[in-house]
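Journal club prep — side note

Before the paper discussion, L.F. wants everyone to see what a predicted structure for a comparable chain looks like in token form. Sequence:
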Amino acid sequence: MVDHTLFRPDAIDPETSAFNADLKALLAQAPSAMDVPVEETRAAREEGRGPAGPVVVSEMAQEREIAGPHGPITLRTFVPDNPRGVYLHIHGGGWVLGRAHLQDPRNEEIAQTCSAAVISVDYRLAPEHPYPAPLDDCEAAAAWVVENAKSEFGVDNIVIGGESAGGHLSATTLLRMRDRHGYTGFRAANLVYGVYDLAMTPSQRSWGDEPFVLSTAIMDWFYDHFVPAEKRQDPDVSPLYADLHDLPPALFSVGTLDPLLDDTLFMHQRWMAAGNKGELIVYPGGPHGFDAHPTKLGQSARQRMNEFISSHI
């Protein structure tokens, strides 16, 4: 049972409230992704002009290319000495924005803290490459990791995970690996405020116009770039509608001020109803992306995710 008191306004720590107020003010000054060409939003992020600030590139990171179904796929790797396992990471950004290197600090932290070889997939993005291209690339990357982890890194225990659209692609990749490759050997899944119903859960529909990182309109904008409306309840697109049997233990993390709240609440319940282990952590006052914030809330989320990954590799 989820503790209902977590959703009360008085459950939000004052530090979180103060940070959220500053974040709202910052976002109010920035143009919406809906109002500028996709290329401009991508360039702003690459140049550190987005709300996330300057881009920090890890000296630990290396890149390699593998063969994909429609051309080469770049994998960004962070390999510590004597890794104990592999963490296959899939970045967020609504299938439209984001790149693997934009999460270098977090992926380096996971590599060092968890003694994991972190592999982040630079999958193709919509609208240039809509569904199924991003998922095809993630499936190909997962298949490569499963086949080559032992020879490349000396270990074959693999955890998969990602944030937002990366959580979605992690879940759908697990399903494809099970159904198309007969592989159910992932040790765990770290699913961070993912989107699991592209037909929109109630929390997405009812959020409205307040652009607190995401909004109902922004989610519609992402979906329109990624996949046609008539496909949005297909289990390969929206994993909430899939048969979820034989999937690994999962950690579901979400904040109470995230339009994708219901996606995590519903997916956690369906995950367990299919006979899988699932842990749900709801963070009071956490907006979308809160785990990247320099707050006690963000630090506690990152620490729990690190512990989860470490315990399964």
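L.F.'s comment for the group: The mean pLDDT is 97. Keep this in mind when we get to the figures.
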